[in-house]
């Protein structure tokens, strides 16, 4: 018998402090054959399975998703889901930290809508980013859950395969798993919970021991997402299991130990306000110094259009810095108009968020990069001793190729500035040293000072003086089943 399994989802992370709403063009959308042919989903090749591609929409983190954008994706996804019936299973590849303008718990809305289409019997599996925020509403729709176990995320595929394999397991063996979760009132930035550093490293290294317990399929620790001021923000343990008591014990143990360690999570690299970090960079005798402009990191939801580090470097007459990059479409267009080799007056910064600082400069256009579509354009400019890569659209510069493409070898640069939190797996090994600047922006790392009107109280570190005992809750689907 061939199993019919549908695949789809929506995947992004949204800072509610960003005024820049996500639009359809911000998403990479996979549909039909394109989804199955994508490298991202290339593990969907099980024998005896009819893989039914729905819609998968994915965007670089940013501001909230515009309501009309979300509703259009959801409507298309549900229509394809309806058309794919009858089904044996549904796999959802989610991030978990999406915020939709004017809506709380967007993933809860999406997954509940999917459940309403497929009915109460069908197993649904979801994979999540460990920075996703989970709710009872989400858990109540699911039978299987798996989250990343690394940050920086180098186990994306493994996580998707874990969720997918559990779905195949229930469909082929008849074993019926359920999901238990235990929220922890702690919200820490990803930069303090990197699995490259302790104590997160050990926490995640222990999860496979939980998996090995009788009756447990998959144990997870979710850090959650702190830069969305919404009620659901929380860390939690989430366990997929066939044994309810074992699931409860594992979820409560993971949750309680995370709570107990809450004060131990610190930034990995040397971390300080911008001016202090620049002092260190000036004195450094090694290279490349890689400075993370943490408040404006697009992969954490930052806008990516701020020029504060550029401004500070120019004020110091810093020689030999490369900034990769600043999103500024008007500046890129102006460079294209002026042409390579020309010198022009430019305003850099604040092109998307009026609150982002900008700087007026005289820039020389070093090179232009035109891969034929305007949003993909980039321009490299030189301003005194600083080289800046300007991008027409929001994007990270976290890979070596993002620089070598422009003839810049990151390893030889005196100071490389990237809009990043913890460094990417490609940049981290060459940083000599890595410094993190506590810059301003919509994902400011000084989380105790960010807007906090709608998060649940108490929640560490917004509140500090309270007690907590972890208590697991089951998916209502599991309670209802004998
Ligand atoms: Zn993440």
Automatic annotation (TrEMBL):
Cofactor(s) required, per the database record: Zn(2+)
Annotated signal sequence range: none
Short name of one Pfam family: MlrC_C
Top-level taxon of origin: Bacteria
InterPro entries on file: MlrC, MlrC_C, MlrC_N
Cofactor note: Binds 1 zinc ion per subunit.
Key words, A-Z: Hydrolase, Metal-binding, Metalloprotease, Protease
Domain Microcystin LR degradation protein MlrC C-terminal: 291-454
Domain Microcystin LR degradation protein MlrC N-terminal: from-to ranges: 4-281
Function per UniProt: Involved in peptidolytic degradation of cyclic heptapeptide hepatotoxin microcystin (MC).
UniProt family annotation: Belongs to the peptidase M81 family.
Stated name of the protein: Microcystinase C
């Amino acid at each position: 018998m061939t199993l019919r399994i549908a695949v789809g989802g929506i995947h992004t992370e949204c800072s509610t402090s960003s005024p820049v709403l996500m639009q359809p063009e911000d998403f990479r959308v996979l549909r039909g054959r394109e989804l199955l042919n994508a490298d991202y989903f290339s593990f969907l090749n099980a024998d005896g399975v009819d893989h039914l591609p729905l819609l998968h929409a994915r965007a670089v983190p940013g501001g909230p998703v515009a309501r009309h954008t979300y509703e259009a994706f959801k409507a298309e996804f549900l229509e394809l889901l309806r058309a794919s019936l009858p089904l044996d299973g549904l796999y959802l590849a989610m991030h978990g930290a999406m915020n939709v303008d004017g809506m709380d718990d967007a993933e809860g809305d999406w997954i509940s809508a999917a459940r309403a289409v497929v009915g109460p019997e069908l197993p649904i599996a979801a994979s999540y980013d460990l920075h996703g925020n989970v709710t009872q509403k989400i858990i109540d729709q699911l039978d299987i859950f798996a989250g990343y176990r690394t940050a920086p995320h180098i186990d994306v595929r493994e996580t998707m395969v874990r969720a997918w394999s559990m779905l195949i397991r229930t469909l082929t063996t008849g074993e019926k798993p359920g999901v238990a979760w235990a929220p922890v009132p702690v919200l820490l930035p990803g930069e303090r919970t990197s699995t490259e550093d302790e104590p997160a490293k050990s926490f995640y290294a222990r999860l496979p021991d939980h998996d090995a317990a009788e009756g447990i399929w998959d144990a997870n620790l979710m850090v959650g997402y702190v830069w969305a001021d919404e009620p659901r923000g929380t860390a939690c343990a989430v366990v997929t299991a066939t044994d309810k008591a074992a699931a409860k014990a594992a979820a409560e143990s993971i949750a309680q130990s995370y709570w107990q360690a809450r004060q131990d999570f610190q930034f990995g690299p040397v971390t300080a306000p911008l001016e202090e970090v620049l002092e260190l960079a000036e004195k450094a005798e090694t290279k490349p110094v890689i400075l993370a402009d943490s408040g404006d990191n697009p992969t954490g939801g930052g806008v990516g259009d701020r020029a504060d580090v550029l401004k500070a470097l120019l004020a110091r007459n810093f020689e030999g810095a490369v900034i990769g990059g600043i999103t500024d479409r008007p500046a890129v267009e102006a460079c294209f108009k002026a042409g390579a080799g020309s010198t022009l007056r430019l305003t850099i910064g604040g092109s998307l968020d009026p609150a982002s600082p900008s700087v007026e400069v005289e820039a020389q256009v070093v090179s232009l990069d035109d891969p034929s579509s305007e949003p993909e354009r980039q321009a490299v400019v030189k301003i005194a001793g600083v080289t800046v890569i300007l991008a027409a659209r929001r994007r990270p510069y976290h890979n070596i190729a993002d620089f070598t493409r422009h003839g810049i070898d990151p390893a030889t640069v005196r100071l490389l500035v990237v809009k990043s939190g913890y460094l990417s797996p490609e940049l981290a090994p060459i940083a000599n040293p890595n410094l993190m600047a506590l810059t301003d922006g919509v994902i400011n790392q000084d989380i105790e000072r960010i807007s906090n009107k709608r998060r649940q109280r108490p929640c560490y570190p917004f509140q500090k003086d309270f007690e907590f005992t972890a208590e697991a809750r089951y998916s209502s689907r599991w309670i209802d089943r004998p």
